Amino acid sequence: VQLVESGGGLVQAGGSLRLSCVMSGLTFSTRASTTDWFRQVPGKERRLIASRAWHVDYSWYADSVNGRFTMSRDDAKNTVYLDMTNLKPEDTGVYYCNLGDAWGQGTQVTVSS
Q: Comparing C-alpha atoms, which of 79, 89, 96 is closest to residue 39?
């Protein structure tokens, strides 16, 4: 499985961004696996901020993003999205998509105050 993120950038506080994670090499079992988004800031560990299972109705969001971030998926495009609204400076970081043992290269999100 290979993951490629995109969609990061510089945005003002209160703005929105959509991150994309294009997945390739999926199998029947991995296609149903839970997909996660992590965020990492310099000097700190990568932290889980959103998770969604596709074979059952399950999603989880960190308190810091709950109500502002939403995960979705387009099966035809093998792409998972993270829609981020009402962005805050503390949302700044590198965002990574994760599926099992696979990680993307990350995409930088910078929110200015």
A: 96
